[in-house]
Amino acid sequence: MKNYYQKEIETASYEEIRKIQNEKIVKQVRYVYDNVPYYRNLMEKKGVSPEDIKSVDDIKKLPFLTKDDLREAYPYGLLGTDLKNCVRIQSTSGTTGKRVVAFYTQKDIDMWEECCARAIVAAGGSAEDVVQVCYGYGLFTGGPGLNGGSHKVGSLTLPMSSGNTDRQIQFMMDLDATILCCTPSYAAYIGESLAERGYKPKDNKLKAGIFGAEPWTEEMRQGIEKSLGIKAYDIYGLTETSGPGVAFECEEQTGMHINEDHFYAEIIDPDTGEVLPEGEKGELVFTSLDKEGFPLLRYRTKDICILSRKKCSCGRTHVKMTKPLGRSDDMMIIRGVNVFPSQIEAVLLKEGYPPNYQIVVDRVNNSDTFDIYVECTPDRFSDKISDMQAQEKKLNLAMRSMLGIGPKIHLVAPKTIERSEGKAVRVIDKRKLH
Ligand code: ADP
Ligand code: ZN
Predict the structure, then answer these.
(1) Is residue 99 lining ligand 1, measured as CB closer than 6 Å?
(2) pTM, 2 dp
């Protein structure tokens, strides 16, 4: 028997979904126009008024929002309601310069948690399950999102948060966890750690995992499924739209259903902004149809993917997105943390280094390595190893405080990083993520 968390809406016909979306968008555009002066200005500049939006087909008339807008409007400029109506703030992982702060009313939280509950049920979850959540708790959306979803489903929730693998394994084994929620790299790491401790896949009670927040490949999926003896499901989301659960995988494992009753998805050409037809590859853009606290319209995710309405064997009718196939900006996700080369450059300049550097990212034994090669200035270069190590340490700390994760710093002699004749090659990402 197939299980759904909200069967009626998850299996509604295309026409029914459209009807809901059309009703919601008319109200939502009016709401945003009336409550968010920042977006009202953008609409006025574009010559669009709420009356112009009669259905989701008219969404293309609306202006886009980008991370730059979020930064400019930080912190309250895109708030949709009085702060007193909001009950929660969440924020993106890691970054200082580009931190996104999102606000939630109780209704927003319920909607988000319901989306996560749909994902858990799609992965086979029910009130019988023990859901171990080892996404980080706190400002990061991973922990709170899946935690809330698990509560809605009525599963027994283990709010582990991230880290402390010994304790994760002890609880997993002693308390018979059946569903594991974390980043795919951490899942792979747990798999290895179990094997190191002499456990076979059949020794644990896990049956499924819900993994997301960073790119992962089919090969990685197979590795995780084998090492843990589970079925591994992808989940996608971003803080700007709420968090994980915007889209989730079903048992068919051929893409993630987008919760279309709450999020309207478009694929655009990242260069021209033109909306592309279904099946074409481009940048994913989301319009939240009913959020109150942080109601973003036409938010450009910078994630490149393809949408498909092909009938799914699970019975769900919502449009599916492929795994993100890349980004239309230079953001990297390293150990689950969003990192921009521009932040690294800013730290180097602040610490008095020339902007001659190279970032090398790789994935070794399922975890990301992060190295930065930096050219020293002649006056700082020293033959004494301890001098160089002290400088590397200082730079590592400065990077850590900016990025939230610490790279391995390699100071190299002046003029040793290869100069490029065209655009400098700043980033060498050896991970095969797509
Ligand atoms: P998260 O809590 O998911 O890390 P952020 O807002 O910090 O949220 O980052 C969102 C970005 O993370 C997305 O735009 C996308 O690039 C990436 N991401 C999230 N989930 C996935 C996934 N399942 N596969 C690939 N990338 C993902
Ligand atoms: Zn499906």
Answers:
(1) no
(2) 0.90
